[in-house]
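During the reporting period the student researcher (J.K.) took over the structure-prediction task from the postdoctoral fellow and processed the backlog of single-chain submissions. One of the processed entries is reproduced below for the supervisory committee.
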Amino acid sequence: MKNAERIKYLNNSDDYSFEQLLCKHMDRLYNFALHLTRNEEKAKDLLQDCCLTAFEKFYQLKNVQSFKAWLFQIMHRKFINNYRRKKDPELIDIELDEELLSDADNSFDQNKFENLIGDEVQKAFDFLPVEFKEIILLADIEELPYRDISKILNIPMGTVASRLYRGHSLLKEKLQEYALKFGYK
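J.K. obtained the following structure tokens:
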């Protein structure tokens, strides 16, 4: 089934097009990209690369219910393959329907994650190695189940649990003095 047929099928069955499904997750995808790349321009490039690949491969998606996890998996793979290796991505300009973007359930908020936590927590989070940051973002911020995180990162579920525990432990170490200052033990 080609993209046009898949989009038509989705419009008839679920009243969602690819663009509508994508718009629901744009702010979260951008925040994930921003934390992976630590650079606004690179995050935008990664987001664009992810969206383009998702559109091109949309016909391969078997279950629309797993669309969010599938998007995060694409972004993670793009980051690993292109951005961690310092490869400059090929930029392609795409246009999205502005009316559809403004009607999306979740408005595009590039500072959503930063607004949820304080500066000290952000500094401690930035200190973490990427493999722990990814797990914490996907599990604690995106609230994805271990099974989905395992698929996104292509690691066993036990490794997800182990990295999440280790990431939390590293954050706890970094924030211990900060917590004591506010009366936490």
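The committee noted the following: The chain has a mean pLDDT of 78.
J.K. will present the remaining backlog at the next meeting.
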